[in-house]
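Dear colleague,

Thank you for sharing your sequence with our group. We've completed the structure prediction you requested, and as agreed, I am returning the results in plain text so they can be pasted directly into your records. Please verify that the sequence below matches your submission; if there's any discrepancy, let me know and we will rerun it promptly.
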Amino acid sequence: MTIPTDQSAEDRLDLWLHAHLPGWLAGIVTFVAKQLWAGLFAIIILGAIILTRAIWSPDWMLARYDALVIIAVVTQILLLAFRLETLDEAKVILLFHLTGTVMEWFKVNHGSWGYPEPGVLKLFHVPLFTGFMYASVGSYIARVIRLFDAVFAPFPPFWSGVVLALAIYANFFTHHFVPDIRLALFAASVLLFARTRLWFRLGAGWYWMPFPLAALAIALSLWVAENIGTFTGTWAYARQGHFQLVSFSKIGAWYLLFFVSFTTVTLVMRSALQRAPFSPDRASAQRPPAPPPAPAG
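Please find the predicted structure tokens below.
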């Protein structure tokens, strides 16, 4: 079987897997492969954190934090140069880099966590690679939407999601001075998106999961990644031991931050949001059929 070459690499992989594996196994492999591909930027940054922790020497002229900044910038340039990332995804990364860096400045200077290693490319005690860590979350969401043809439906009025995201972002700052309203924000996220489903396509089939559950799953993944960061000594929370797990309460913080990330992404990728309930049959009918495989030989 010859795979058509006028399709994206992801679609060609999908066709190849469904041609060579049982349907259920092809679906699982496709899902995992696309998830890893969607998280490419995050995986590179996390891999760099682990690798530099393993090999770096404090005697080297270049500080580890500065190396991580260089790796992040070069990675961003290469992803755009090889068209592994779209301009919309790059816009998301820039937006979330800015919002994430501002929050880092505030949190670090209020003693919530810190970066113990030296570095030249630090501003207000925060190494500049940290903005890329936040941006990688936005990059992942944007790439998932594209790779899985994701649709969020029925989605509430867009302004309501923006208000929730602004309230969440503000609470990360204001809870240091006034009562913390995160419990109300948890409740608001569930109520607002109770009917919303995340629809995604695998092969010719459509699948769905509740949108708040998808947010929780991503939050759990981010909590695992955060523990890798603390175990490698890249950053440390106040009063946290070196090999002590990050508090489970941080899963809630990442859950809320997901909605800030998602809203940031949909500022430039609004087409994935649909007010009406989603119809997989109608979507499949509207999607152009894949070209048939050329005959062997």
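Summary note from our side: Residues 1-6, 289-297 have pLDDT under 50 and may be disordered.

Kind regards,
the structure core
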